[in-house]
Every structure is written in structure tokens, then in C-alpha cells.
């Protein structure tokens, strides 16, 4: 049984992520080729399998609004700080043009989408980083959106869920992007001090400054299967220490076996797992 899409709250944005033909009957078969096994399958089959390869089980990255449509109860979605848009604080060469191209390609204003909604009837604040927009890199606006959403959760005494997917701090914004590590971590600390529940959900890839800040500060840390999670990539580490790394190093399964990740959760179990965790910690 495939996912029941909650597209009514944001139909245009979900259509941009999935393609118009996924929300109506296809006149012609449309296929997706898996980058892992090289096999093709109908887009409809990928959708019904939560964008996990129907042949080999490899996970495909999904957009922020689509992920929200999978976990939030129908009609409960309310976006926070949608007016915050990516900018160019350093007047970095060609950055404005690249931002415009990213916005046009993805339909997003930045790499983070923040929202409040209900998961199985329980109200929560959810933050999703979208790897399609500059690899989900943390800019000054991404840091600001994350911080404001965390502060909203603190003030409203709501559970907080952050889906991380990032290549780290955004190079074009220099020190402004690096400052977001301290800012977001401070907001999480205040949230924790107020007694809030923070569930960090790591997806592929979660690296760099995001890993070194809010992604690693969860009360409970979940991960999708096969996700790359770390600060520097394995190739950089091997070149630095001049040693071969263990098989599967920095993948979610390896990190679960070493205690960094509490639980690996299949995408099909995403909503039900979050619902159970919120219920267990309610009050």
C-alpha cells in the first residue's frame, strides 16, 4: 500500500517536486533509473514505495514539501517564516545568479522549510533541509529559519523534529554561514532547558557544519537507511590519516552499531515512529 499524499495543503510545491504526471493518470509510462543498481521502474512504483528503489531498496532523496506531506496530518500544515529568502551578504561573484537558478529549479526560496502541523493528532514543529537547493547547505537564512522555528517550539511548548540533509556551511557566505552553527546550537540549548523534546532525523547526506551543530544535539537521533553522516567525508579522512576506513564507515548502520544513532527508521515507518515517540514523551 503506497503513501497517501497530503497534497491539498501545498499542491503546487509538491507537484514541482514530483512532477505533474505523478498526480494524475500517466498517458505514457514514465520511468526512473536507480543510480545504485541501474534498473528502471515506473515513477508510480517509486512513489508507492516512498521513493525507495523498488528493485534494490536504495533510497532516493526527496524534497522538503513532499516529506512534510508524508508525515503531517491532512489539513494541519502551516508554514513558518515563508517570507525569509536567500540573499547574498558577501556580494560573492555569481552567487546571485546561482541563487536565482536554484530557486527556479526547485521552487524553493531557501534550503530549509519550517512548519507547524500535527503528526497523528499531536502538534509539532518540523524543520526539513532540502538537498536539492545547494545540497542543503547552511546559509545565514537557513540558520535564521532553523533558529526561529526552534524558538517557536520553545515558546509554544511543542515537540521539535529536524530532518537534516546537508553538505555543510555554504561557502559563498563565509563567516555568516559559520556563525549559524553557534546560533542554532544556542537555540537548541534553550529549547532543551525548557524541557522540550527534540528528535533529530538524519538523512542522506548529513555532513559538515550541520552535523557539528543542531543535527547532533537531538534527545533522540533517528536516521534513514544508508545515509552518509559525518563531518568530513570518508575520502578526506583517509587522505588525512593515511589509513583505510572500516567498511560502511559513516553510514547510518555503522553509526547505529557504535551508539551515535539510536534507531534506523525506514521511510515507510517515518510517521508512525514519530507519532509513537511524541506519545511516549507527552507531558
Strand order of the largest sheet: 3-4-5-6-7-8-9
User: Would you tell me the structural class of the helices and strands?
Assistant: alpha/beta
Largest sheet: 7 strands, mixed
**Low-confidence stretches at least 5 residues in length (pLDDT < 50)?**
1-5, 19-26
Report mean pLDDT, rounded to a whole number: 91
Give the SSE string. HEEHHEHEEHEHEHEHHEH
Shape: globular
Q: Could you walk me through the main structural features you see in this protein, from its secondary elements to its overall organization?
A:
With 283 residues, this protein is of the alpha/beta class. It has ten helices and nine strands. The strands form two sheets. It has a seven-stranded mixed beta sheet, sandwiched between helices. A two-stranded antiparallel ribbon has the order 1-2. Helix 6 links the parallel strand 6 and strand 7. Helix 5 runs parallel beside helix 6. The protein is globular and about 45 Å long. The two termini are 33 Å apart. The N terminus is likely disordered.
Amino acid at each position: 500500500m503506497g503513501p497517501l499524499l497530503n497534497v491539498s495543503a501545498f499542491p503546487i510545491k509538491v507537484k514541482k517536486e514530483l512532477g505533474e504526471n505523478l498526480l494524475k493518470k500517466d498517458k505514457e509510462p514514465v520511468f526512473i533509473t536507480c543510480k545504485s543498481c541501474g534498473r528502471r521502474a515506473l515513477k508510480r512504483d517509486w512513489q508507492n514505495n516512498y521513493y525507495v528503489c523498488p528493485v534494490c531498496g536504495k533510497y532516493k532523496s526527496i524534497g522538503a514539501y513532499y516529506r512534510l506531506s508524508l508525515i503531517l496530518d491532512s489539513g494541519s500544515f502551516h508554514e513558518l517564516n515563508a517570507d525569509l529568502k536567500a540573499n547574498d551578504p558577501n556580494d560573492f561573484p555569481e552567487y546571485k545568479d546561482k541563487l536565482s537558478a536554484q530557486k527556479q529549479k526547485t521552487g524553493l526560496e531557501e534550503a530549509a522549510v519550517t512548519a507547524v502541523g500535527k503528526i497523528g493528532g499531536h502538534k509539532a514543529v518540523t524543520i526539513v533541509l532540502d538537498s536539492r537547493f545547494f545540497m542543503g547547505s547552511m546559509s545565514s537564512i537557513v540558520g535564521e529559519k532553523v533558529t526561529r522555528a526552534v524558538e517557536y517550539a520553545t515558546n509554544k511548548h511543542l515537540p521539535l523534529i529536524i530532518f537534516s540533509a546537508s553538505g555543510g556551511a555554504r561557502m559563498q557566505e563565509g563567516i555568516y554561514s559559520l556563525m549559524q552553527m553557534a546560533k542554532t546550537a544556542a537555540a537548541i540549548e534553550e529549547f532543551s532547558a525548557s524541557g522540550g523534546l527534540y528528535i533529530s532525523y538524519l538523512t542522506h547526506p548529513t555532513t559538515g557544519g550541520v552535523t557539528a551543530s543542531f543535527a547532533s544535539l537531538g534527545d533522540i537521533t533517528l536516521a534513514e537507511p544508508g545515509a552518509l553522516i559525518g563531518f568530513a567525508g570518508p575520502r578526506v579522512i583517509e587522505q588525512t590519516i593515511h589509513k583505510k576506513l572500516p567498511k560502511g564507515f559513516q553510514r547510518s548502520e555503522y553509526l547505529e552499531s557504535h551508539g551515535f544513532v539510536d534507531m534506523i527508521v525506514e521511510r515507510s515507518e517515518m510517521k508512525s515512529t514519530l507519532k509513537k515517540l511524541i506519545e511516549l514523551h507527552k507531558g
